[in-house]
Design a protein that fits this description.
Protein name: Solute carrier family 12 member 7a
Keywords: Cell membrane, Chloride, Glycoprotein, Ion transport, Membrane, Phosphoprotein, Potassium, Potassium transport, Symport, Transmembrane, Transmembrane helix, Transport
Membrane topology: Multi-pass membrane protein
Strand order of the largest sheet: 8-7-6-9-10-15-14-11-12-13
Strand content: 5-15%
Catalytic activity: K(+)(in) + chloride(in) = K(+)(out) + chloride(out)
GO molecular function: potassium:chloride symporter activity
Shape: elongated
Helix content: 40-55%
Structural class: alpha/beta
């Protein structure tokens, strides 16, 4: 349309279309005066192809004006403002990639869980956890950089990259996993926000006052739900406010990190004044007391402290009953953060894991054990509220390193995405990895606690901060709020992108939204799933779920890069050169290992979810061709397999019917016998190749579109026939089918059997083309050593939806030509249509054969072939040729002679027309020769009058000698007819009620003069039978008794 409009303007008079000529012109800096000359004269050679192949200048102009704006927040903001701004991507590496990645990576886990992980796993264990996770994300970032720089990445970010690299099945599965991961990330950040609020900012705001974990979980559920609803309203009302606050939230994160490092430097000079109270070697919860002592002396009077009342049952006296452990051990007060030079690193090298409820004890601290432990008083100590082990900590920590996709998701806003994404993402990962590794060294508190009750409700990382712990508390609170809002903003848009791709039918409703494109329905679903995470009410339980989905996404990013690299497709030309397929495989292996290391049951659930989505898209999803790597991998695998198959012919044990189905199309280009495809489907228990072919008469230039529009594919889909289709245009059907028999297939995947329908109307046809085509097809398949199957009354065969409740499949084994006759019933019985049919095998014995021994031998042969069938031997008695057979043979020959006469008359008419044409040609040539001067060589006529008269006299002379009605039948034909009649009588008697009859198909005569009689013999052989399959072997064994 674009080019056609432009050409119309060019040919129009001057001045017409001047207003919009520049907008519609395909040329850069072109004007209306020069363009007609340029296109009309210089490029006239290509003017007929300009619609399908535009000029290079037009193509470059389209590329130059291409704008890749993210289909997300920016458009929604413009729609809300009512102003459409023409924005040019101006974001650089630092603002567009580095800072967003930093904001997403540094989050709730860093502030709330890293100190506990270090205290529980020790410095070496936590260093291993941080290193594994950071290496995993670094390798993924390298793979992602290669994919992101291999062309333009539109909206959708990582989902777009994976789906276009691995296909719609993998793309949809991983896209939904990424969506679920982003949604549960929102739950994680909201739970982190509420934990900071109720633990450090407003501890008195709890609704459930009971001092147990279940009450705390209920508080998290109540406040988390309220927070989720509030955030969802903010996202629904105006996304622009979320984006404007993004810089504020990022400033909070940066300020918190800087306060932490300032505090760490301060500890070198002056360690923070936060102490921990120990009773013996046990840590006490010091939010319930102020003084770390049993008694206190005021004005020379000894009075009990608050700590005394926690372990003793009455007033202070020497006879009072106290906890035995409290009585036997002394109180010690130590620094919570001893400082870098205190040697505490050596003490915290190794981890201290334990089951839930275990009291936390300081190693190398003396204590006296109590004889009778007091469970009631244990509430005053610090203890593990969950069972801790290394793999659990991996799953909890991994969400801290997610967020590396933030830069690629903003590719439309970047000035140079192919440069900024690799540099910004990898620098952000290296920076955050350095920060996290340093945190493991700085945050080496001897108290592996999360809520820090030993530090008077201060976070462990907070007491490191300078100038006040409130910097960390407020900074982490706003950081979690911002991250939660970003998750609730990004997840619905990701779901909307998946829904609009149309690969998952039931998600299409989520592709719609408000008038400005805001994904309202996707936001509602996101809030619902996010609420599930909040109802879990435990940050430690949600974190592994989040880890699974992100690890699944990262795994497929690495797989996509590795596949594309190994395939070496011409389109794989990333600008980022520092990648290798081994790194991608290492990253993929590390992601898979981390999935099962952190939580094997969550990993299995994630794999099952992704697998179900994959199979659903494969079964019900829309067919998309995105040039993905999986398709390229299939092509490479197919090429390799075909080359291997060419090396040697298949063994008999590997033989299976590779069927070439010869179909005929009607005038509407519909398959004339669709049941032929149904029968092919039922026959494919061998899982072999199927090629459905047809021939159109004419030339390819005139009927090329009909060949492409041939409805073979839809017919195959309707009959559930899996295979390939091919329509050939040829001057006549005979040549077309001959070409298909010779050349169909490729390499080792060539057909070894041909299936066709019996030409039912060959007797009524005006010409003998149907008979000749059929017989020549039989001869060509025999010469090509291919099996042939001919189905009579194919329209009476059962469809794929029918179920034959009973009946038999009868095999009449007359001659052995490879065993295909016995293999076909077995293959049919594997299909549900024929499953309840019993197989019967009949063989014919002559008078001098031992029929009893033949039956025993055949039963033993079938036993070795592992075929279950009923065996029956039929004796053919030698009888004289009946008058009926003699008369039938005579009628056949008379009919053949009559057809020859009819054909002769038609030939004479054609020859007379040719004679008239030659005379006219000769007269014109003679006139031209006289004008020029008589050329020495004359063109001879094809037919002269004398030739025609002589030929006609010969034919009439022959008929005069042998009168048609006084002729005697040929004895060879009489014997053949006798065999056909007698065999037909036996077959009809034994198999008239069977569901299918399989017969050996006799070969055509070597002398082509008997072709017309051959069809009569086959008609007589099949007379009185409904469903018949004539089978002719290909000359090689297809079934064996050996394993």
């Amino acid at each position: 349309t674009f080019v056609t409009t432009n050409r119309e303007e060019v040919t129009s008079p001057k001045g017409k279309g001047d207003d919009n000529h520049k907008e519609s012109s395909p040329f850069i800096n072109s004007n209306s005066d020069r363009e007609p000359y340029y296109e009309g004269k210089n490029m006239a050679l290509f003017e007929e192809e300009i619609d399908s192949t535009p000029m290079v200048a037009s193509l470059l102009n389209k590329l130059a004006n291409y704008t890749n704006l993210t289909q997300g927040v920016r458009e929604h903001e413009e729609a809300e403002d009512g102003v459409r701004r023409v924005a040019v991507p101006q974001m650089g590496t630092f603002i567009g990639v580095y800072l967003p990645c930093m904001q997403n990576i540094l989050g709730v886990i860093l502030f709330l869980r890293l100190t506990w992980i270090v205290g529980t796993a020790g410095i070496l264990g936590s260093f291993a956890i941080v290193s594994m996770c950071c290496i995993c994300t670094l390798l993924t970032a390298i793979s992602m950089s290669a994919i992101a720089t291999n062309g333009v990445v539109p909206a959708g970010g990582s989902y777009y990259m994976i789906s276009r690299s691995l296909g719609p099945e993998f793309g949809g599965a991983v896209g939904l996993c990424l969506y679920l991961g982003t949604t549960f990330a929102g739950s994680l950040y909201i739970l982190g926000t509420i934990e900071i609020l109720l633990t450090y900012i407003v501890p008195t705001a709890i609704v459930f006052k009971e001092n147990n974990s279940e009450a705390m979980h209920n508080n998290m559920r109540v406040y988390g739900t309220c927070c989720l609803v509030l955030m969802a309203l903010v996202v629904f009302v105006g996304v622009k406010y979320v984006n404007k606050l993004a810089l504020v939230f990022l400033s909070c994160v940066v300020l918190s990190i800087m306060a932490t490092y300032a505090g760490v430097i301060k500890t070198l000079i002056e360690p923070p004044d936060f102490n921990v109270c120990l009773l013996g070697n046990r840590s006490l919860r010091n939010e319930n007391f102020e003084t770390c002592a049993k008694t206190d002396t005021i004005k020379n009077t000894t009075i009990p402290t608050e700590l005394w009342s926690l372990f003793c049952s009455g007033q202070y006296s020497y006879n009072e009953t106290c906890d035995e452990y409290f009585t036997l051990n002394n109180l010690t007060e130590i620094r919570a953060i001893p400082g870098l030079l205190s040697g505490v690193i050596k003490d915290n090298l190794w981890g201290d894991y334990g089951p839930a409820g275990t009291v936390i004890e300081k190693q190398k601290q003396s204590s006296v054990a109590a004889q009778v432990p007091s469970e009631e008083k244990n509430m005053n100590y610090l203890f593990n509220d969950i069972t801790t082990y290394f793999t659990l900590l991996v799953g909890i920590y991994f969400p801290s390193v997610t967020g590396i996709m933030a830069g690629s998701n903003r590719s439309g806003d970047l000035r140079d995405a192919q440069r900024s994404i690799p540099i910004g993402t990898i620098l952000a990962i290296l920076t955050t990895s350095f920060i996290c590794i340093l945190q493991t060294l700085y945050c080496r508190s001897s108290l592996p606690v999360r809520f820090s009750p030993a530090l008077k409700k201060n976070p462990v990382i907070g007491i490191l901060a300078w100038p006040s712990p409130w910097v960390i508390v407020i900074g982490s609170f706003f950081s979690c709020c911002g991250a939660g809002l970003q998750s609730l903003t990004g997840a619905p848009r990701l779901l909307q992108a998946i829904a609009r791709d149309g690969i998952i039918p039931f998600l299409q409703v989520f592709g719609h939204g408000k008038a400005n494109g805001e994904p309202t329905w996707a936001l509602l679903l996101t809030v619902g799933i996010c609420e599930i995470g909040i109802l879990i009410a435990s940050l430690d339980d949600v974190a592994p779920i989040l880890s699974m989905f992100f690890l699944m996404c990262y795994l497929f990013v690495n797989l996509a890069c590795a596949v594309q690299t190994l395939l070496r497709t011409p389109n794989w030309r990333p600008r980022f050169k520092f990648y290798h397929w081994t790194l991608s495989f290492l990253g993929m292996s590390l992601c898979l290992s981390l999935m099962f290391v952190s939580s094997w049951y969550y990993a299995l659930v994630a794999v099952v979810i992704a697998g179900c989505i994959y199979k659903y898209i494969e079964y019900r999803g829309a067919v998309k061709e995105w040039g993905d790597g999986i398709r390229g991998l299939s092509l490479n695998a197919a090429r390799y397999a075909l080359i291997r198959l060419e090396e040697a012919p298949p063994h008999t044990k590997n033989w299976r019917p590779q069927v070439l189905v010869l179909c005929k199309l009607d005038s509407d280009l519909q398959v004339k016998h669709p049941r032929l495809l149904s029968f092919t489907t039922q026959l494919k228990a061998g899982k072999g190749l199927t090629i459905v072919c047809s021939v159109l008469e004419g030339t390819y230039m005139t009927r090329g579109n009909d060949a492409k529009a041939g409805d073979l594919k839809s017919a195959m889909a309707a009959e559930r026939t899996k295979g390939f289709s091919h329509v050939v245009v040829s001057s006549n059907l005979r040549d077309g089918f001959s070409i298909l028999i010779q050349s169909a297939g490729l390499g080792g995947m060539k057909h070894n059997a041909v299936l066709m329908a019996w030409p039912a109307g060959w007797k009524q046809a005006q010409d003998s083309s149907a008979r000749r085509n059929f017989i020549e097809t039989v001869r060509e398949t025999t010469a090509a050593h291919q099996a042939l199957m001919v189905a009579k009354n194919i329209d009476h065969f059962p469809g794929n939806q029918e179920r034959l409740k009973e009946g038999t499949i009868d095999v009449w084994w007359i001659v052995h030509d490879g065993g295909l006759l016995m293999l076909l019933p077995f293959l049919l019985s594997q299909h549900k249509v024929w499953r309840k049919c019993q197989m019967r095998i009949f063989t014919v014995a002559q008078m001098d054969d031992n029929s009893i021994q033949m039956k025993k031998d055949l039963q033993m042969f079938l036993y070795h072939l592992r075929l279950d069938a009923v065996v029956e031997v039929v004796e053919m008695v030698r009888l004289d040729i009946s008058a009926f057979t003699y008369e039938k043979t005579l009628m056949m020959e008379q009919r053949s002679q009559m057809l020859k006469q009819m054909q002769l008359s038609r030939t004479e008419r054609e020859r007379e027309a040719q004679l008239i044409h030659d005379r006219n040609t000769a007269s014109h040539s003679s006139a031209n020769d006289k004008a020029v001067g008589a050329a020495p060589d004359r063109v001879h006529m094809t037919w002269t009058k004398e030739k025609l008269i002589n030929e006609r006299n010969k034919q009439r002379e022959g008929m005069g000698v042998k009168d048609m009605f006084n002729m005697k039948p040929n004895q060879s034909n009489v014997r053949r007819m006798h065999t056909a009649v007698k065999l037909n009588e036996v077959v009809v008697k034994k198999s008239h009620n069977s569901q299918l009859v399989l017969l050996n198909m006799p070969g055509p005569p070597k002398n082509k003069k008997g072709d017309e009689n051959y069809m009569e013999f086959l008609e007589v052989l099949m007379e009185g039978l409904d469903r018949v399959l004539l089978v002719r072997g290909g000359g090689r064994e297809v079934i064996t008794i050996y394993s």
